[in-house]
Amino acid sequence: MWRHSALVLVLAGVVPLAAQSPTFGVGRPATREEVRDLGAAIAPDGGGLPEGTGTVAAGREVFAAQCSRCHGPKAEGDVGPALVGGQGTLRTARPLKTVGSFWPYATTLWDYINRAMPFDQPGLLKPPEVYAVVAYILNLNGIIGDAAVMDAKSLPKVRMPNRDGFVADPRPDVGDTTRKPN
Amino acid sequence: MKNSGKTSRRRILQIGAAAIGGGLLTQQKTLALETPGKLGTPLGPYGDRSPFEKAVRWRRESKTPETGSSFTPLQDSVGTLTPSSLHYERHHSGIPSIDPSQHRLVIHGMVDRPLSLSVAEIRRLPSVTRTMVLECGGNSASEWAASTAPDVQRSYGLASCSEWTGVPLSLLLAEVGVRPGASWVIAEGADACRMERSIPLAKALNDVLVAYGQNGEALRPAQGYPLRLRIPGWEGNTNVKWLHSLKLTDQPYMARDETSKYSDLMPDGKARIFTYEMEAKSVITFPSGGQTLPGPGPYELSGLAWSGRGRIERVEVTTDGGKSWVRAQLQEPRLPMAFTRFRLPWRFDGRETVIASRATDESGYIQPSREALIAVRGTNSTYHFNGMKFWKVRADGTVINVET
User: Fold this and answer.
1) How confident is the model over B92-117, as a mean pLDDT?
2) Taking a C-beta distance cutoff of 8 angstroms, is the pair B391, B404 a contact?
3) Are B341 and B80 in contact (CB under 8 A)?
4) B374 touching A, CB under 8 A?
5) Bridge partner residues of B272 (DSSP)
6) With contacts defined as CB-CB under 8 Å, which chain B residues touch A22?
7) At B30, is the pLDDT very low, low, confident or very high (cuts 50, 70, 90)?
8) How far B100 CA lies from chain A's nearest CA (Å)?
9) Start-end of H helices in B89-217
10) B96 in contact with A at a CB cutoff of 8 Å?
């Protein structure tokens, strides 16, 4: 439960930074532990990814132990959503949005598993296990090979099939939007 | 004729006395007064509504009880505020139990002074109070389908309006000193899934609140106690509950709930991302699906309108299936991004008819029809449905949903 360690205040980690004068002077400097544990978000360029490596083979074991009971033995979906398949369905009447067919960034998979999975025990997996299960899911989708190893350098370089599938919000886009109120 | 005059006056007095007496008896029954009188219940520390009031949220079936949505009974609402107890909920991993004395908000990343703030410290800062709608990005998702939802609660009930109190996020950002080059704020909550969303810095500096209060008291646990983001006009999911981290960055983080979810899939297979704004919307809440008019006669038709882009400027109502539209009366004050109540006197003549409303906001944007939305966006975009809702009032007074 490494991410819960902030509950124990580790004052030794206090890092006072350059001080310009704030208006109210409230709060205290955030500790390294608070920043690490409360704000451990991962950027799409890989910023924030921790040390550790994971293989497809190791991920298969993690998945079987921790993920398959909700996502199905082959990640085909059960109580939890399908994590594979759906390629070619986004323009059909029944789109299947999965990691393989829809997710634009592999880093999002690491970030989400790390923060929110397993559903009933989020935070259970250690970084090497997260890398491993990410590798396994990417491999199931045919995005990386059987021998691929995921770490802080290789993961952000994975190009997701739907990487270019997102566009900016063009709204207002419907109807006569030029009519002015009285 | 003198005598008869006296007689008739006496008779009138007698009749009058009898009528007054009868009236009193009737009144006693109506008010259920008892003789001798009986004391009521003692005063209590925290109020509850009358046991005769039965309006409740409706909850969609979910495979896991910690996730899902509960819908506000808009058909039972009066005025423009939603009681906190009936505010819609949308949770992704349950409601955490947080001791505010143990909770901290950390602001870090591209800042001069990464700060850790207690809830008490935040509450000491200059605050503002605003009445605003909160609407789930997926509100009315049922309406994209061929068979839309049968009543106003299930079709439009993931929207509620409260008075929110909090500290402007811009004030907190000034405290930490945002560094040049920062352009996004990554917000994270303390729920089990640690909900994460990317917010453009420009919006964060404009009108976002770090809220601690709702409807005159602390936030309810289900609404993010002790701290949440309140982002005026933007989809509910960005209003991160149980807020514990704000990270200043130079890029959006492409979180799961802004890529895989809360993005809008278009007919060409591309998905719109960062579709934050909730566009103008309105719906008739009386009469609405599932209700029954007792018979022909005069009624006050009523409903709610709101827009993420500002004030409601106009609401038009049709009571003849769209052939003609008349302007409804708008309840003042019309607050920007808050529920505006509209009303229209209407006489039900006992013949079947179809009614609907459409809102125009101060930007000039007009609420579209469902067909117009689908013509542009198809039926797979899930989020941000704001089409008109048509109700059919049948000759027997029952009101049902129609898909026209």
Assistant:
1) 98
2) no
3) yes
4) no
5) A167, B264
6) 113, 174-177
7) low
8) 13
9) 119-123, 152-156, 169-176, 201-206
10) no
Cβ of residue A146 closer than 8 Å to a chain B Cβ: no
Task: Kindly report the pTM of this predicted structure.
Answer: 0.90
Q: How far is A70 from A47, CA to CA, in rounded Å?
A: 30
A residues 151-180 closer than 8 Å to B (CB): 165-180
Per-residue burial over B186-204, b = 16 or more CB atoms within 10 Å of its CB, e = otherwise: bbbbbbbbbbbbbbebebb
| DSSP run (H or E) holding B346 | strand B340-348
Q: In this predicted structure, what is the pLDDT of residue B101?
A: 98
Q: Residues B207-262: pLDDT tens digits?
A: 999 999 999 999 999 999 999 999 999 999 999 999 999 999 999 999 999 999 99
3-state secondary structure of B213: strand
The ipTM is 0.89
Tell me which of B11-15, B235-239, B352-356 is least confident.
Answer: B11-15
Per DSSP (E only), the strands in B27-174 are: 58-59, 68-71, 89-91, 104-109, 115-118, 128-135, 159-168
State which amino acid sits at residue B56: V
Per the structure, the count of domains in chain A is 1
Q: Which fold has domain B281-402?
A: Immunoglobulin-like (2.60.40)
Looking at domain B59-272, its CATH architecture is Alpha-Beta Complex (3.90)
The dihedrals phi and psi of B384, each to the nearest 5 degrees, come to 60, 35
CATH of the domain at A91: 1.10.760.10
How big is the CA angle at B330 (ends B328 and B333), to the nearest 5 degrees? 175
Residue of A nearest to B112 (CA): A18
